[in-house]
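User: two proteins, same treatment. go.

Assistant:
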Amino acid sequence: MNILLMLVPISLVLLGVAIAAFVWAVRRGQFDDLDTPALDILEDDDRPSGRPRERNARDAG
C-alpha cells in the first residue's frame, strides 16, 4: 500500500511530461504536414546526386 504513495505521484509527473512534450511538438509544427514526407519517397528522381564527373583523356580511351 505504501508503494502507491510513491507510484501515483511518479505517474502523474510522467503524464505531465508527456502532455508537455505533445504540446511542444504541436506548437513547433511537427504535425502540420503528415502526407508530403510519405509521398516524397515515391517521386522518381532521375537527377544524379552531386556534381557530374568530368571526363578526361584516360576515361575516353
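Protein 2:
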Amino acid sequence: MINPAKIFKLKGLWSQFNQNHPKFSQFLNTVYQNGLKEGTVFEITVTTPEGKTINSNMKLTTSDIELLRTLSEMSKE
C-alpha cells in the first residue's frame, strides 16, 4: 500500500524541483503535448562537475507510457 505521507512529501519535492528548474517542466509538458507513442526514444546525457559524460537511451513501451500518464495525472491532483 502506498504511504500517503510519502506521496505528500513527493509532491512538495516535485514542487521545489519545478521552482528550481522551470525549463525542464516546460520541456516535459511540450513532449507530453506532442503525444507520446510506443517506440518514442528518450535519450539523456549527464555531465558530472568533473566533465565526465554518461549517456543512455530507452525506447518507450505501452506500459512505460501508461506509467508516465498515471504520474502526470497524480501530479495534477
